[in-house]
Every structure is written in structure tokens, then in C-alpha cells.
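Whiteboard transcription, Tuesday session. T.W. wrote the C-alpha cells on the left side:
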């Protein structure tokens, strides 16, 4: 089930239950409670669906604006051009390098 339909359905059900609860506590007739519940179900289902549609469209446009910035780079494997990547030179740890190491404790 899509997100906009699900949110509209949840809003309508919560509002319908609250309408029934308030109607029962106020002591109105069952016909009035039924009428108010139906109106609130339809109203909030449409309102929830349309608000999620608007939010999706708004955020999709915002994400597309920020996603197009930057520079496009072509990544090429070194095997295709015959280039060789030099192997990094191994340097063992010596006493001069120990002075540059800082210890942190938690």
C-alpha cells in the first residue's frame, strides 16, 4: 500500500474514533454520531492523502535540485589503459614515528 494512502487511512481512522468517542461522551443521538463520523472520515482521508501528495512532490523537487550539483567523473580501470599503479612503499614503525602517536583514553 503506498505511503499516501496509508497515511490518509490512518488519519481518517484516528479522527473517526475520536469523533465517535466525543459524540458518545456528549450524549448526542446515534444518527448524529454516525453522520459526524462519516464526514470526518471522508474529510480527513482526503486531507491526509492530498497533504502527503503535496509533501512528496515538494521534497522530490528539493532532492532533485540538490542532487544535480557537482562534477561528473568517469572512473576508468587501470587495466583498460595498461597503466600500472605503483605499490605503496612499506615503512615499518620505528622509534622516531612513535613520538608522533598520541594516546587517548575514554
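and on the right, the sequence the group agreed on:
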Amino acid at each position: 500500500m503506498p505511503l499516501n494512502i496509508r497515511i490518509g487511512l490512518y488519519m481518517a481512522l484516528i479522527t473517526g474514533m475520536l469523533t465517535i468517542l466525543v459524540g458518545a461522551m456528549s450524549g448526542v443521538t446515534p444518527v448524529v454520531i454516525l453522520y459526524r463520523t462519516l464526514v470526518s472520515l471522508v474529510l480527513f482521508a482526503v486531507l491526509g492523502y492530498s497533504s502527503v501528495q503535496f509533501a512528496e512532490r515538494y521534497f522530490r523537487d528539493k532532492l532533485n535540485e540538490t542532487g544535480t550539483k557537482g562534477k561528473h567523473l568517469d572512473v576508468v580501470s587501470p587495466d583498460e589503459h595498461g597503466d600500472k599503479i605503483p605499490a605503496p612503499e612499506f615503512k615499518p614503525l620505528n622509534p622516531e614515528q612513535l613520538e608522533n602517536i598520541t594516546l587517548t583514553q575514554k
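Someone added at the bottom: DSSP finds four helices and no strands in the chain.
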